[in-house]
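For the sake of transparency, this paper describes our internal protein records without simplification. The remainder of this section carries one protein's record, kept here as part of the documentation:
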Amino acid sequence: MNSIKFNTRIFSLIVLISASMSFVISCSKNDNGSASSQTVLLSFGPTGAKPGDTLRFIGTNLNIVSGIELTGASVPKISFVKQTNELILIIMPKETVKGFVTLKTPQGDIKSKTALDLMVPVMITSIPKEARPGDNITITGNYLNWVNYVTFAKDKSVDSSGIVSRSLDKLVVKVPANAQTGKITLTYGGTMPGYLDSDSILIVTLPSITGIAPNPAKVADNLTITGLNLDLAWGVLFTGVTQADTVMVSKSATMIVVKVPAGAKKGKVTILAPSKVMVQSPVDLVF
């Protein structure tokens, strides 16, 4: 009788353990008894990859992903290198920039919680030889879509809001009014942000003076200055006067008319560009 009681207790314990296991298994399934079909993105990377490298996406139910949206580029399902329930491999397009990743599924979009950052070898292949202040110039190269700042000589910078357009191989930027002749520096982002100087210099066009008349001149009379690119002039400075005259009677690309100020003396007439670079007349103005 004791043996029967002992076996009955063991049997009850086995039934209890089996019921507990059934409960645990049922908790990992949906109400209809099937495993969850929800797509989950667990991780992706590697961070610091370069365009052209393989990106790895790890998760669950990834086999139903129909495409992956990267910032600046899209990869459709047909272009996946590999796709299983737990893994997707893709080749990162060159157009990719820093940003979040979105997996497209029939259940809806799945957006990554962290941004993808890259290591990008920015390169300059050419810049214009010369440009006028206010002109748009085109810089060619590689991975220029990562550029955040363009700095002209004497630390005249244009931030991303002032960049006209940027793509993988072209960067269009407006030359600041106060830019000076010199090299151009590009500042870019990525896993390892940095800057890159152009090999050649950009010549920023300046006004030039070919003549002044009448000469001799009289104080308070109009003086006519002839030349080229005179519409770029910011002011006119006379010898003997400390302040440049920025109010002109008239101004065009080939002619400036300005009144001779009190205190003007014999000497050069100087035109100031917005960059404050000075250009002097070829002859002295006399009285």
